Amino acid sequence: MLTFLALASVVLLGIVPEQSQAIVIYTGWERHALVGSDIRLSCSFFSWRWTSEDVTFSWTYRPDGSRDSISIFHYTGGAAYVDNKGPFRDRLEFVGNPGRRDGSILLKNLDFNDNGTFTCDAKNPPDIVGRPSSVRLLVFEKVPIQAGVITGAIIGVVLGLLVLIVVIYYLMRFLVARRVFSLSVSKHGKKKKEGSQQRQIKV
Questions:
Q1: Can you give the pLDDT at residue 187?
Q2: Which H helix or E strand runs over 113?
Q3: Topologically, how does it sit relative to the membrane (predicted)?
Q4: Is a pLDDT exceeding 70 seen at residue 111?
Q5: What DSSP character marks residue 90?
Q6: What pLDDT sits at residue 190?
Q7: Where are the domains of the chain?
Q8: DSSP letter string over the chain?
Q9: Are 23 and 122 in contact, with CB atoms under 8 Å apart?
Q10: DSSP, residue by residue, 12-45
């Protein structure tokens, strides 16, 4: 009985050690950029906990055609650590805000060799269980027009034509109704004038 009461007291007082919960990490799906330009790769996370002082962010990079990933950035203990020997040395800058769950990085002076997959992992102790999120970077001389942009343009044109047709339809109805009203008023006025003349003749 005493053991049961002791356990109940621990639960009620919230003295049970915190258990880790799942953390959900978000990045983009695919990014396009021009040679020589800069690009921001965003990384954020969702956690049921308050943002911990021990929050960490890690970025890895896997070049196209390679099976191996390399670490290019790590944030921990309030400090950012950039790989100073890899392909992004002197070209990577931390632009995130850990207090707002933002672990974004900025890649500068992009080149064709930067094409590849960038993976972000985040931990918000005690929430440390989660699947890293990846974004693919494609560098071009000219950014291609995406299929979604073309589809959106076509939909926009079609909707614009439909709106124009509806406007023309109601405008024609208005003009016809106005014409009919004018003819009706004119006819009624003519009859009234003829009736007045006939009464004058009889008198």
A1: 66
A2: none
A3: Single-pass type I membrane protein
A4: yes
A5: T
A6: 59
A7: 19-140, 145-186
A8: -HHHHHHHHHHHTT-SPP---B-EEE--SEEEEETT--EEE--EEE-SSPPPTT-EEEEEEEETT-S--EEEEEEETTEEEE-SSSTTTTTEEE--BGGGTB--EEE-S--GGG-EEEEEEEEBTTB-B---EEEEEEEESSPPPPHHHHHHHHHHHHHHHHHHHHHHHHHHHHHHHHHHHHHHHHHHHHHHHHHHHHHHHH-
A9: yes
A10: HTT-SPP---B-EEE--SEEEEETT--EEE--EE
Which CATH code, of 2.60.40.10, 3.40.630.10, 3.40.640.10, 3.40.50.2300, is assigned to 19-140? 2.60.40.10
Helix (H) or strand (E) holding 103: none
Give the count of beta carbons closer than 10 Å to the beta carbon of residue 23: 22
Which tokens sit at 83? 């790989």
**Using alpha carbons only, what angle is made at residue 121 by residues 134 and 90, rounded to the nearest 5 degrees?**
80
